[in-house]
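Long-time lurker. I teach an intro course on protein structure, and each term I like to show students one example going from raw sequence to a predicted 3D structure in token notation. This year I'd like something fresh instead of my usual example. Would anyone be willing to generate the tokens for the chain below so I can use it in lecture? Attribution to the forum is fine with me.
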Amino acid sequence: MDTIRLPAGSVLVVGAGLAGLFLALKLAPRPVTVLSPAPLGNGASSAWAQGGLAAALAPEDSPQLHAADTVAAGAGLTDPVLAGLIAGEGPARVRDLIQLGVPFDRNPDGTLALSLEAAHSRPRVARVAGDLAGREIMASLIAAVRADPRIRLIEGISARALLQHESGAIGGVVARNGHLVRIEADQTVLATGGSGGLFAVTTNPVEAAGQGIAMAARAGALIADPEFIQFHPTAIDVGADPAPLATEALRGEGAILVNADGSPFMERYDPAAEMAPRDVVARAVFAERAAGRGALLDCRAAVGHHFPTHFPTVFAACQKAGIDPRTQPIPVAPAMHYHMGGIATDLWGRTTLDGLSAMGECASTGVHGANRLASNSLLEAVVFADRVARRLRLDTPAGRPGGADVLVPPVLDAAQRMGLRHAMSDLAGVVRTGAGLTELLQQIDALEAQAGLANELVTARLIALAALARTESRGGHYRADFPQTDPQAVRSWVRL
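-- Reply from a regular --
Happy to contribute to a lecture. Here you go:
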């Protein structure tokens, strides 16, 4: 196995989405190496974000209102201190992105154009070219990173396991780029993205399958709230893998959900109708489809002929599937969209292991609780990347591991991985039961007996165990056998 020893004082960032690249830029003057499993911009969930970045930027808005909306969406498990932190620091991070060249949409008077999304009390979502926020933000960051001589990029390499001292501290990773290589570093930061690839229906890159959570859990890190999965209610149901997304901003513009016969149905589920929290809308869409009535997003009156310019990503996906959303409703289905749970961190991105930080979707900071407020994901990524950078510029290096061998997990073959994905969607999806989750754990056991303890199986097991243990319904976790919310329930804390 080859070894790469990074220079003393350098930071290893595993993942090249928004959180990873923003951190690399913020770490100046400290040297940093960024690992990306694909060429920059390809395969990062951040680039697929359509809605935008939520921040209290309007005169009629405030960080206090944004924090209150975040807490309300989190279904009782959001840490109000953390909600206030990201809301308070959000406007400054938007200004950072503007300085990096992100061309946020503007009003005729030059102010930022802000959109309203579900469960927000004010329009506060900064967008780029309608629904191209993720792609355009990433393009600006990639250009800045490639131009920064401090930042070393290693593309086409996937981290598989953490290097660990006998003391338990982390000192780098074992990665694969055709062969295995040890990469030793004083400080390691996981920014590996989410877990959507564990589910058969997802809006995420299928490669994002909870690898960062699994690597941290294997090393003994504390994992928080793995059962809380956000299912986006309006993935475009055309059989694509991953499923293209019909952004929530469409409902913010006035699009309505209807049955196959054209009848609106959301008011039967929530007085806020289309602007209800995502978990409510996802379960409504799930229920209508399960009842055979179908679910479609009707954008004809709300968007109409503006579709190609206002929502070009959604329009292109519809056109590719033979749908003209200007004249036809869009068939939709719930899809795994965001993992609220992950590696437990403090408010500076520290995990429970020395030398290891985590941020972005693979982390669980306490901001999202049981249900993420729309467009808070990009906000959390840049706020915590900035905070991790501020801490690491001052932190004493954790040191390097010895030369001991590290156990590299096996890889599931295509059939095993697809079997797992279908089991997760069927048994740990929008609606769960104890019997279904028990069956899921049995299927994970069987796959492990066949293939060994692959990273995907570690994260899937953590999700299933926590979901089985939570005998209530709350936010993105709905148990048909325990439909009520337990007022005494608290966050989940799990170790392998």
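Some talking points for your students: The chain has a mean pLDDT of 94. The CA atoms of residues 259 and 295 lie 5 Å apart.
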